[in-house]
Each structure stands twice: as C-alpha cells, then as structure tokens.
Amino acid sequence: MRINKYIAASGVTSRRKADELIEAGKVKVNGAVMTSLGYHVQDDDVVEVNGSRIKPATKMVYYLLNKPTGYVTSTYDKEGRPLVTELVPDEVRVFPVGRLDYNTSGLLILTNDGELSNKLMHPKHEFDKTYVARVIGIVTRAKAARLAKGVDIGGFKTSPAEVKLLRHDRNSTLVEITIHEGKNRQVRRMFDAIGHEVVELERVGLGNLKIGKLSTGMCRKLSPAEVEYLKRV
To answer: In the predicted model, is pLDDT for residue 90 greater than 80?
Structure first.
C-alpha cells in the first residue's frame, strides 16, 4: 500500500496531508525518516507519524461535529490549542475533512476513511456550503445582490452565491449565504468586499447535510444514508 494511503487508512489525516507530513520529515519507516512519497509499505514495516506507531483501521467511522469557536481544525497544533478531534469519541483515530477557521463554528465532518476524505477534498467535488454570518452594519438589498452575483476577493471573483437577509438590529445584520467554492476565509473576504466585517460565522450546511439542532461542541454519527450520499457525490 502506498505510504500516503497507509497513513490515511490509519486515521491520521487525508492522503494529501499525509504527503505534507512525509515532506516535513514527520514520518518514519523502520526507524528511518521516510523521504519517498511513492514508497509502498510492506507487511512487516513499522510506520510512525510524529513518533507514534500507526496501523490501518479496520472500522470506518463518520462523525458530524458542531465545532465551537476556539478549536483548531487539525489533529495537531504546535501552540497547544484545543483540537476538534478532542470533541469526538476516541473509539478510533479520526481526522477532519476540510477545515473551519479557529474563529468559525459549525458543521464539520470527521472520519478515519481516507479514501472518502481524499475524494471530498478534491476540487471537482466542491459542496455547497451554507453559513450564517453576523456582520457589522446594515446590509442593504443592493449589497446582498452584489454578493449573490459574485465579488472580487483579491484576484479572484467568486461564483454566484445564494444570499438571504435574515434580520438586523441597529448595529448588525444576520445573513445566510451559500457559496460553491472553498477559498481561504472566503465568506469573511466576501463581506469585506462590500464593506462589512464578519463578527460571528457559523457553517450550518454542507451539501445535503445540516447542523440541525445539534448543540455546539457536540457530535453525532452520520446515518448510513448520509454516508452513502457523501460517497455518491
């Protein structure tokens, strides 16, 4: 089995991230730092990532987490900040699929299924991502229409989005927005482009998956139908 696939099958991270771990010298095989991305693991090889021995998982698990703010979407953080993996049962090792910023909350999938993760993170499998944002100031219908048509966020014009003005008070507006790409900090940059700073951001939907009434910091297992949906997309 190719080493990045072996690492993904062990529930450490996706194949793409596994390549980055190898390039960073974080992977050892039989005590020696692995440098070849194309290495095929043999039955008697001892593989270590960040000093811990790993083996492919035999049971695949799939969680939907309502991520709180203040958690890092990773399996490791050099600053010692809380990790999203700490919020799911430790029956097996899992890793997040995609990411949510440290200050963004909401729907996040975690799994040990490296094949599915690799598929979902491929650019051709972009999911619609629905967010609820609280922004400073009153967003007018005209500005919402600009967001919906697509805006320049610095050398990149976003695809048309779905925008709903939910409500506002004297100082802020609550907006639901569905985007179709996944650029870094895209929603925040889109609102910046129309002159409104995002102060709260929650992802409430990913494709057909919804956060529903799941409490912040809690997780649940995906249903068989939900897993099949992800594999089918």
So the answer is: no
